[in-house]
Amino acid sequence: VLTDESANVTEHDIARRAHDLDGKRERIDTALNRIRPLLKADGVEVELVEVRDDGASVRLTGLCVQCGTGPLNFQTGLEQMLREEIEEFGDLRLT
Q: Please, which residues have CB within 8 angstroms of residue 20's CB and are 6 or more apart in sequence?
């Protein structure tokens, strides 16, 4: 369903949003690259899956299965680090 507002979206608007998301992806990748060595020391890999206006989704692999709070601790730490690096960063989701 198109609203009056969505009907006014131009190709320029779409291109600008794509460019903004590409820039955000680069900034997130740069921030994740800084922390990857620390994660790898714990046997954890992080993959950037999706960048959204309000944040990003990542996939963590290599986490200890017996550590029930492991993913939550890593998510909280990564999200805090991304917010420190990228002021307007929203939320981090695990996929």
A: none
Please report, as a single letter, which amino acid is at residue 18: A
Summarised one tens digit per residue, pLDDT across range 9-41 is 788 777 777 777 888 999 999 999 998 898 888
Nearest to 60 by CA among 8, 83, 69: 69
15: enclosing H helix or E strand: helix 11-41
Which among 61, 65, 52 is positioned nearest to 93, based on CA atoms?
52
On whether the pTM is more than 0.85, the answer is no
Half-sphere exposure (Cβ direction) of 7: Cα atoms closer than 13 Å? 4
Contacts with 69 (C-beta within 8 Å, 6 or more apart), sequence order: none
* 54 closest CA partner among 94, 5, 90, 8: 90
CA end-to-end span of the chain: 29
